[in-house]
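agent> Task received from the user: take the single chain below, predict its 3D structure, and emit structure tokens. No templates, no multimer pairing.
agent> Plan: (1) validate residues, (2) run structure prediction, (3) serialize to tokens, (4) report one or two observations.
agent> Step 1 OK, no nonstandard residues flagged.
tool_call: predict_structure(input=
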Amino acid sequence: QEGGSETKFNYEVVQGRNEGEGGGGSGSRVGKVKCRGIEFATPSWIPYCNKGGIPSLGTELTLNAHELSRELIPVLQFSFEEFGQHSTTLQKFNQDLHNYVGDHSKSRCVYMAVHDPHIYSVMPCSKKLWIQTPAGRIQMTLKDYISFISYTKPDFFACLSHEVPFSATKKQSFKVVDISLQWLKESISLIQSQSATSTHPFNIFAVIHATQDEMSRKKSVMETIKFDDNLSGYLISGVGLGDDIQNRRNIITEILSNIPQSKPRLVSRIGNPGEVLDCIDLGIDLFNSDYPTFASENGLAITFPFADPWWNETGIRDEERNLGQMNLRDKRYLLDKGALYPSCGCFTCKNHTAAYIHHLLATHEMLAAILLSIHNIYHYQQFFAA
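)
tool_result: status=success, residues=386
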């Protein structure tokens, strides 16, 4: 139902702190998102994708693996930093991003981020966005971005903005906030002008900058929420880029105490389970990170317990696996005939041993990253489901 209520991004607080449409406040909560007929609960994780699928898995496994079903992975994230360089090709393709990456049945929601959460590149802060490509840097304007959104048709997307670390100076912070606010205002104007001819809704997440400078941070919050009627949610930018835990808690609490409770809050680059729980406690709803991908690429299996610590077949608690990660390159797993996580229901744990994956890593087999990715993503998503 293009253009109908089914395509609009809707969020509802089911349980937890909610002070009404205009009230602010922080605190953990459970919510429900409905977009294009796809429903999922929050807090939730949005996996990082590259080249049309989750790294190491590709499009086919991303869309069809049992461990990555729509019920477990309802949203996939792509970035403008990756696809922006192909904007001419995508426009000539004349179909939306779902079809471009092979999801012809549109089984997942697509979130378009501006920046790639897997890497952080220091780029000049100007009224154009610089994108790093294999052929060098290219510049993209706001009109380029909104045009890109109009023909790729993501289900929701982040407003164009620069990304600066927590350590940015006061001058840098004000500059990036001013540019972001100008881009937000112009984006809404461009979207409204296109709404008359487009049947696809523009579900935009405004960017709030969590800088260390208090004045620029407050300006980012107070000026952004003036556009709340035109927004589907808020992206808190800069979190996880050089901030310490206590500063992060204070700043997120301050920001959430001022933005409306009726919209979801998203952060990028936060993936460590302890940090995720900390942010959930403050009131963050959506997490866009590459945590399982990073672990898989480094030969690590995610095994942190999110219920009671598990026991192996002999009834002895396995301390190594309960530490949270297994470095499967370590020779201690050379003869380990146990699963990565005995109670895990993923394909990897049901069919393969730690020793086998250690062997694959030692012989540099591509299958190692595939099996680790299947397990890590499944285990990580079960953590959010719990």
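agent> Step 4: summary for the user.
Confidence is low (pLDDT under 50) at residues 1-5, 310-317.
agent> Done.
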